[in-house]
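Hi support team,

I've been running sequence recovery on a batch of backbones for a student project. Most finish fine, but this one hangs at about 90% for roughly twenty minutes before it completes. I'm not sure whether the input is malformed or the queue is just slow. I've pasted the structure tokens below so you can try to reproduce it. Let me know if you need the job ID as well.

Thanks,
M.K.
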């Protein structure tokens, strides 16, 4: 098992969702922790609040790109390539991962709620989606000359 899948398995077994895993992994690459950010990413899980809408893995991947390209300080400007990178991620996800079909969590994995607890019908496939998005998001950042192991102030 490669490092990506080990990270996903480790964090998933601790109860983190797809989007949380992507941002926690991104923070780890930079040698950082940010529990508030990771906690906030739970809102994207299972298609935004367990609604089954847009897949949390791809929206989390967009957030991972934005972690490196977005505005975070008053005196900072977003990196202009960020929007194009997020669009490329979404286009890739739609065509390669979803074969041109829907990009919703419900269509990809099936989402149910039992006693107020959100569940995926295909959790193993979710891990595979997270791994693919992780690898694609990092590849996009690197291709744009952005080192995902560095924070904005270090780059």
């Amino acid at each position: 098992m490669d490092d990506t899948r080990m990270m996903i398995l480790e964090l998933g077994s601790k109860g983190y969702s797809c989007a949380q895993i992507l941002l926690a992994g991104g923070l780890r690459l930079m040698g950082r922790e940010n529990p508030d950010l990771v906690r906030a990413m739970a809102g994207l899980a299972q298609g935004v609040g367990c609604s089954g809408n847009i897949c949390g893995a791809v929206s989390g991947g967009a957030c991972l790109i934005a972690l490196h390209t977005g505005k975070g300080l008053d005196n900072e400007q977003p990196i202009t390539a960020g929007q194009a990178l997020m669009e490329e991620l979404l286009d890739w996800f739609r065509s390669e991962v979803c074969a041109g079909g829907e990009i919703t969590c419900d269509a990809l994995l099936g989402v149910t709620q039992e006693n107020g607890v959100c569940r995926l019908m295909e959790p193993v496939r979710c891990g595979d989606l997270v791994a693919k998005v992780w690898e694609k998001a990092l590849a996009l950042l690197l291709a744009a000359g952005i080192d995902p192991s560095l924070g904005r102030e270090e780059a």
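--
Follow-up from support: It reproduced on our side and the slowdown came from queue contention, not your input. Helices lie at 3-13, 18-29, 35-40, 56-69, 81-97, 105-109, 123-143. No action needed from you.
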